[in-house]
C-alpha cells in the first residue's frame, strides 16, 4: 500500500510470524502483521523457521542495560526485591525505560493514583469508547490498576532464592499515549522530560470533557510565573504572568582538575544555586522602552507567582560538543529535609515603583524583517528541533551562535507559543473554521476562547490547542492574586520535600538508561523504592545527585 521498501532480518524470524522488519523510507523498525504471507512469495515458510539471532530491540535493550545502576547499599549489601501495591515493575519494551521511569514517579503522586486506581472497575463498565485501546482514560485506569492493585507484583523463586518479579507490560498504554507522536511511537530512546510534557498534554486533553476537567490530576503541576522587566534608564517596570506546569533549571558548570584517561568531573552544585540562577536578573540589550521611546538596556527576572502542589523540575546538564548536545555529569545536591522556596516568590508592583506604559510591542508594518543566520538554524534543525523554534531562538538570542540559541530553546520548552511565529500572519481569516471550533469545544473549552485562539493561531487547531492548554484566559496580576486566595493555598506554604526522581546514565538523554526512585508515604512512615524497569527494590539510601527530573511535593 505504501510502496516502501522493507528489509527483514532472517535470523529473527519466529514460527509465530514476528521478525525485525526495517523500513528505509520511515527509517524505523515496523511491525508486519502479514509477514508470513509476504515471505511466502520468496519461498520462506515462517512456521518452519527458528529464531537464531537477537532482534534490534533486544540488542538495544542489552546495550542500555550495560548502563547499570547500583543494586547494593554503601556497605555492599544487596538490595532485596520487593513487590506489592505500588511496587509493580514495568517491563522494558525496547528503549521504553524513559516511559517506565516517568510513569512510576507520576503514579507515586496521590492525585494520579486516587484519580485512576479506585475508579478503574467502574470506568471499564461505563466507558462509551467502543475500543478501549483507543481510549486514553481506559489505558490510564488500566495502568493504575496494574501498578497499584498488587495482583501482578509477584516475586519469583528459583532454587529457594527470591528473584525479581516479571512486572507488567505497558505496551497498550505506550501505543495510546504515543499515537500522534512519531518519536514516542518509535522504538528509539527518548528524553524523559519531553515525554512528561507530552503525557501532561495528552491527559489534559482526555480529562477536559470529564466534569469540565475538574478531575484532571495534572493540575497538581500547575503554577504561575511572574516576569519583571525594568528599564535601567527610566527605572520603570512591567510585570507579566504566565501559566506553567513544568520547570527547567540551569546548572553551574565548574570543572575539576582533569585526570588523564578519566572522565571529566565537576564540582557539586547545591539545588538552591540552581534556583538562584533561574531567578537572577538577565540583561536585555536593545530594549525599546515605551517610556524613554528609544533603545535602552533592561533587566529581566522570573519568579513564582503561585506554587504548584507538585513541582516537577528538569535539571539542564547539557553543552555543545561538536554541535551535538552532550550530557554533563554535574552532581546536584538535593537535601532530603524540607526545602523552603518562599524566597523565590514574586511580589508584584511594589510601593514606589512606576509601571511602564502599555504598548503593542509590535514592530512597524514597514519594518524590515530581522536577519537570521541560516547556518545556525540548520545546525539546530539537524538536532531535531522544528524550524519555527530554531528561527525564533536565533532571533531571540541576537544571532549570537548555536549554543546560546539551544540554551534559549531549553529554557522556553514549556512556553505555550514556542512553536508560533514571532508575528501573527497577515490576512488572518476573520472567522474560525467551524469544524475546528467544534472539535476544540468538545474538549471542554468555551466557544469564545476557542475562536479567539484559532484566529491567533492562523486557524491551526494544534497550535490553538497548545495555547488553550497553556495560556490562562486574560491573566493579570489581580486575578492571579484572586485565584491564589480562592483555590490555591500556596500563598501560605512554599515548603517542599523530594518525593521522587528520574535518573539517567549515558552520554545523552536520547541514549543510555533511565530509572526511577519514588518515595511512598510522608514523614517517619515514608520509604524509598528503586524502579529499574521490572526490577523493584527497597532503597534506604536514595542517590539523587545525578537525577535528571525531580518531583517535589508541597508540605501543606
In brief:
The chain is of the alpha+beta class and 556 residues long. The protein is 27% helix and 20% strand. It has 16 helices and 21 strands.
Rg, Cα atoms, Å: 25 Å
Content of β-strand = 15-25%
How many distinct helices?
Answer: 16
The average pLDDT score comes to 83
Fraction in helix = 25-40%
Largest sheet: 8 strands, mixed
Q: Which structural class matches the secondary elements?
A: alpha+beta
The counted number of beta strands is 21
Coarse morphology: globular
The poorly predicted ranges are 361-367, 424-429, 474-480, 482-486
Distance between the termini: 57 Å
Q: Can you walk through the features of this model?
A:
By secondary structure, the protein is an alpha+beta fold. The protein has 16 helices and 21 strands. The strands form six sheets. Strands 8, 12, 16, 17, 18, 19, 20 and 21 form an eight-stranded mixed β-sheet that branches. A four-stranded antiparallel β-sheet has the order 7-6-11-10, with no helix packed on it. Strand 19 (527-532) and strand 20 form a beta hairpin. Helix 10 (374-382) crosses helix 11 (387-396) and helix 11 (387-396) crosses helix 12 (402-411). The longest helix is centred in the middle third of the chain and has 16 residues, at 192-207. Mean pLDDT is 83; it is low at 361-367, 424-429, 474-480 and 482-486.
Amino acid at each position: 500500500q505504501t510502496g516502501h521498501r522493507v528489509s527483514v532480518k532472517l535470523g529473527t524470524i519466529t514460527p509465530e510470524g514476528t521478525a525485525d522488519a526495517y523500513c528505509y523510507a520511515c527509517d524505523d523498525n515496523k511491525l508486519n502483521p502479514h509477514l508470513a504471507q509476504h515471505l511466502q512469495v520468496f519461498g520462506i515458510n515462517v512456521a518452519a523457521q527458528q529464531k537464531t539471532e537477537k532482534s534490534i530491540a533486544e540488542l538495544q535493550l542489552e546495550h542500555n542495560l550495560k548502563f547499570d545502576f547500583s543494586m547494593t547499599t554503601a556497605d555492599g549489601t544487596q538490595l532485596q526485591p520487593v513487590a506489592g501495591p505500588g511496587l509493580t515493575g514495568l517491563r522494558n519494551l525496547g528503549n521504553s525505560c524513559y516511559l517506565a521511569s516517568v510513569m512510576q514517579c507520576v503514579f507515586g503522586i496521590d492525585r494520579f493514583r486516587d484519580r485512576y486506581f479506585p475508579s478503574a472497575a467502574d470506568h471499564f463498565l461505563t466507558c462509551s469508547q467502543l475500543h478501549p485501546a483507543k481510549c486514553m482514560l481506559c489505558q490510564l485506569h488500566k495502568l493504575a490498576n496494574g501498578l497499584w492493585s498488587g495482583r501482578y507484583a509477584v516475586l519469583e523463586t528459583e532454587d529457594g532464592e527470591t528473584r525479581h518479579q516479571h512486572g507488567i507490560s505497558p505496551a497498550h498504554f505506550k501505543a495510546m499515549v504515543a499515537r500522534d507522536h512519531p518519536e514516542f511511537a518509535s522504538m528509539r530512546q527518548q528524553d524523559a522530560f519531553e515525554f512528561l510534557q507530552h503525557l501532561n498534554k495528552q491527559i489534559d486533553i482526555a480529562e477536559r470533557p470529564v466534569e469540565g476537567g475538574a478531575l484532571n490530576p495534572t493540575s497538581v503541576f500547575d503554577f504561575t510565573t511572574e516576569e519583571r522587566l525594568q528599564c535601567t534608564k527610566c527605572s520603570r517596570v512591567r510585570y507579566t504572568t504566565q501559566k506553567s506546569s513544568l520547570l527547567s533549571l540551569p546548572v553551574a558548570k565548574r570543572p575539576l582538575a582533569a585526570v588523564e584517561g578519566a572522565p571529566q568531573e565537576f564540582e557539586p552544585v547545591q539545588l538552591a544555586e540552581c534556583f538562584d540562577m533561574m531567578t537572577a536578573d538577565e540583561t536585555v540589550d536593545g530594549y525599546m522602552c515605551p517610556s524613554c521611546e528609544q533603545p535602552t538596556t533592561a533587566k529581566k527576572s522570573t519568579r513564582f507567582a503561585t506554587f504548584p502542589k507538585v513541582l516537577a523540575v528538569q535539571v539542564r546538564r547539557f553543552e555543545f560538543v561538536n554541535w551535538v548536545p552532550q550530557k554533563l555529569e554535574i552532581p546536584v545536591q538535593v537535601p532530603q529535609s524540607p526545602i523552603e522556596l518562599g524566597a523565590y516568590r514574586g511580589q508584584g508592583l511594589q510601593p514606589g515603583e512606576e509601571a511602564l506604559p502599555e504598548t503593542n510591542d509590535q514592530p512597524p508594518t514597514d519594518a524590515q524583517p530581522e536577519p537570521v543566520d541560516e547556518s545556525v538554524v540548520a545546525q539546530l534543525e539537524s538536532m531535531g528541533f522544528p524550524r519555527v523554534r530554531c528561527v525564533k531562538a536565533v532571533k531571540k538570542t541576537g544571532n549570537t551562535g548555536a549554543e546560546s540559541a539551544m540554551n534559549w530553546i531549553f529554557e522556553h520548552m514549556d512556553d505555550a507559543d514556542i512553536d508560533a511565529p514571532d508575528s501573527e500572519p497577515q490576512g488572518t481569516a476573520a472567522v474560525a473554521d467551524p469544524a475546528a471550533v467544534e472539535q476544540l469545544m468538545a474538549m471542554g473549552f468555551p466557544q469564545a476562547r476557542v475562536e479567539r485562539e484559532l484566529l491567533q493561531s492562523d486557524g491551526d487547531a494544534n497550535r490553538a490547542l497548545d495555547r488553550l492548554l497553556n495560556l490562562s484566559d486574560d491573566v493579570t496580576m489581580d486575578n492571579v492574586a484572586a485565584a491564589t486566595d480562592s483555590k490555591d493555598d500556596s500563598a501560605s506554604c512554599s515548603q517542599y520535600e523530594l518525593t521522587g526522581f528520574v535518573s539517567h546514565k549515558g552520554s545523552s538523554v536520547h541514549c543510555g538508561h533511565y530509572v526511577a526512585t519514588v518515595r511512598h508515604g510522608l514523614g517517619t512512615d515514608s520509604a524509598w523504592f528503586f524502579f529499574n524497569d521490572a526490577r523493584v527494590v527497597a532503597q534506604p539510601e536514595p542517590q539523587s545527585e545525578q537525577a535528571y527530573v525531580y518531583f517535589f511535593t508541597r508540605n501543606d
